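A student in our group prepared the protein record below, which I am reviewing. This is what I was given:
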Amino acid sequence: MPTEIIILIAALIVSWMVFRALVGILKTAVSTAVAVLVIVLILNFFGITPENLIEAIKNLPETVIRLFPEQTETGI
């Protein structure tokens, strides 16, 4: 009987820890989604469509390389 109680308590503790981790992940995902939505709405106000934003994200490596051309030539 005491072993069953210890296992029950351990199972409850582990379950609580997993639940808290999942809630934390959910909160992070929701806050990120809200932040992206706000950014897209602000950009839409200025006439920038989500398609323009996705295209800019796709071209981000090329843009960064153009910003720092001397580092790419020297191999740094």
